[in-house]
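User: Before I run my own analysis I want an independent prediction to cross-check against. Here's the chain; please return only the structure tokens and, at the end, one sentence I can use as a sanity check.
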Amino acid sequence: MLGGTSDAHIRFDDVCYLLGSFGFEMRVRGSHHIFRKAGVEEKINFQREGSDAKPYQVRQVRAVVLKYRLGGEES
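Assistant: Structure tokens:
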């Protein structure tokens, strides 16, 4: 997902798990899964499209992960 080769057919549950492993807290309002993390300005609003995540939302998640260098080693 982080490589950006394809934003389609990424499982929704996998993206939720990834965000949780980066320390995001999730709350659910209807079909919206909203992720917040201290120190991250953006909030991620995520919805299912069947069992997959919506491609434009995968791009948004990737942008936040790369911007804040989440999951990588600090330099």
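Sanity check: Helices lie at 12-21, 55-67.
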